[in-house]
Amino acid sequence: MKKIILAIDGMTCSACSNGLEKYLNKQNGIIEANVNLVMANASIIYDENILNIDKLNEFVKQAGFKSLGEFKEINLETKSKREKNKFIIFTILAIILMYISMGHMVNLPTLNILDPMQNPINYTICLFIFAIIFIIYGFDILKNGYKNLIHKTPNMDTLVGIGVLSSFLYSIYSMVMIIKGNIEYTHNLYFESTAIVIYFIKLGRYLDKISKDKTKEAIQKLVKITPSSAVIKVDGIEKKVTLDEIKKGYIVISKPGEKIAVDGEIIEGKAHLDESFITGESKPASKTKGDKVIAGSINYDGYIEYKAEKIGKESTISEIVRAVIEASNTKAPIAKIADTVSGYFVPAVIIIAIITFIAYIIMGYPFSESLIRFVTILVVACPCSLGLATPLAIVIAEGICAKNGILVKKSEILENARKTNTIIFDKTGTLTHGKLQITEIKNYSNIEKNKLLQLVGSIESKTTHPIGMAFEKYLEENNIPKLQVKEFGNITGLGLVGKVENQKLIIGNSKILKEYNVENVYKKDEEELTKKGNSIVYVANTERVLALIGVNDTLRENAQKVITELNKNKIQTIMLTGDNKETAEKIAKEIGITKIYANVLPKEKVQVIKQLKEENKYVMMCGDGINDSPALATADIGVSVNSGTDIAMDSSDVILTKNDLNSILNLIHISKKTVRNIKQNLFWAFFYNCLMIPVAIGVFAGIGITINPMIASLAMVFSSITVILNALRLKNIIK
Q: What is the 3-state secondary structure (H, E, C) of 49-104?
């Protein structure tokens, strides 16, 4: 099983994307396909034993579209200026055409050579030439409409194509009659309608493209964070290269004021780096030998050499961009409803148009008027606005999330986060910074303090847990070297074991002592340390407890504010931690959490979440993404507070790349506003079609309300503009 994202050309509306999606999902070997209209790509999971990329490209072609190969990055098309110039030219041609065809109706001065009464043949041929020019301009519409009709997935292009060709062919018939001398047929010419309908469709698409490009800008800014070139060191000689030339293992140089080119590890020098675009921390981070650097970081003041570790698609930035793109390729439940409706809508409109045409003929109306009704219904019902209603809002919301350090992996999260009524927080590394410090040691052995910490720290350095990092930091600050560790083991939820200098050490919470049948005779000392807010680390050998070490943490600056705001919004907050009860209660009381579960193992955290879900709670779990993986996966929404260096590795649905708990409030707020915006868009899209189709049929002709194909195409443009402008309002939801 393999996954690929293909860039797709030729999609213009939701019926296009739905048609392609349905066609792909029918093919043998394709497990799942999701097509994204706004991002113009298709995410495909397929059996690589049956299919390859060439075959997938062929499927796309068979469906009436063009595959541009693997989707690699967000590119705002460079041909946009050329398209703009072309559009300006056709706008001028459209104005000239309207003047020639209708100027005489409003008593504007006209050329005698093109007067419909004095020179009807000249007038007719002139309109015919204009119509041909516009048909060539809109040939892609006609071509796609035909292909989709053949593949039984009619779309907006099908509606326009049938309408335009019907009026064009009837106008050719009228032109032949005029050339034969029947001047009355000048009233049955619809060449200008053919041309203007195509023009307005192109106008709508041009505006759609501008709006879609704007929704991609936030993501594209991430891509541009990394520099285009860097300096590498080869055999002691500095050489400037492009980013593509850097390979894993290359030594890259960064000087003050320069950006880090690729993710890597410092091997020489020290500097302060601005990583705020990932971490949200405005204060530059001090980096020295052995520290990791992230591509796009700004070197403020030092000279460093670092070894390239993650390049191209593996870099942190690329993983963020890929995650956002893949999220936009998943469909929120509300989007699936709109897609389903769109799938039935186009065939229904074609049937309504045909029935209306036949009915008008039966009722004795002229063929020309019956045809106009037929064409008007097809044009006015084009589901552009319906197709844009959901994906445009979703992509804008995802861009806002990415800009604010909220990496959403699935679109459905943007719809469902608003339902959250219970949020569970892990303690260490989530509500607190996770930067623990050793605060107190009760040594019951004859081992000297620093030697004891050297033994413990050597084992703890084998893990990335915040407690382990506290010991590692102590060793570094006191210039104590690490010792070789043998027989290392990580006992989930309990602690660590390892052999150092031929003695086996057991390190962890009080439960690990029971696991190894070591008697705990120091419970009073444990209580004393926990009352001070310490997390407790027991150090023992196979016979007895050697020491009790207290490590303490600091709360995140806005933890109390966030909990207060959640409580105010009647969202229940719960602390779920493997730490002891006394420490958990102290922190919970300080920030306003009233319900806690302490001394719980990872599997017990899962049970708590399952129990809450059985009580019909919609549960969001917020953890550090390491020991909380099972709980994050079990919750309705898993949120990871993460440093951002291993983004794609998390089991969570949402990653807070800026380590800011306030992002949880922002996520819920964005979710509420996005769903509200989508519902507004869908209402206006459906309202427009429900209103305009009866008008196009002629239901209100008795009171003088009628429209023709040109007005219908213009109305369709305004419908799309309404949806676009409403969706763009989302950009201001986070101040």
A: CCCCHHHHHHHHHHCCCEEEEECCCCCCCCCHHHHHHHHHHHHHHHHHHHHHHHHH
| Helix H or strand E segment including 4 | strand 2-9
- Note the pLDDT of residue 469: 81
Among 96-100, 123-127, 530-534, the range with the most confident prediction by mean pLDDT is 123-127
Q: Which two tokens stand for residue 149?
A: 């009709």
- How far, in Å, CA of 207 to CA of 213, rounded? 10
Distance, in Å, from the CA atom of 307 to the CA atom of 326, rounded to the nearest integer, reads: 29
Q: Look up residue 379 and give its two tokens.
A: 């044009």
**CA dist., res. 719 & res. 703, Å (int):** 24
Q: Which domains does the chain have, with CATH numbers?
A: 2-70 (3.30.70.100), 80-219+324-394+679-732 (no CATH), 229-314 (2.70.150.10), 437-552 (3.40.1110.10)
More confident residue, 517 or 184: 517
Active-site hit among 208, 426, 653, 660? 426
- CB atoms inside a 10 Å sphere around CB 14: 31
Q: What are φ and ψ of residue 515, in 5° steps?
A: -60, -35
Does residue 71 or residue 323 have the better pLDDT?
A: 71
Q: Which two tokens stand for residue 375?
A: 């064409």
Assessment of whether the complete model's pTM goes beyond 0.90: no
- Single out the residue of 344, 397, 336, 390 nearest to residue 682, CA to CA: 390
* Residue 434 and residue 661 in contact, taking contact as beta carbons nearer than 8 Å: no
β-pairing, 437-443 with 485-491? unpaired
What's the first-to-final CA gap in the chain, in angstroms?
43
Catalytic residue check, 646: no
CB 33 within 8 A of CB 42: yes
Q: What 3 state SS string does 644-710 have?
A: CCCHHHCCCCEEECCCCCHHHHHHHHHHHHHHHHHHHHHHHHHHHHHHHHHHHHCCCHHHCCCCCHH
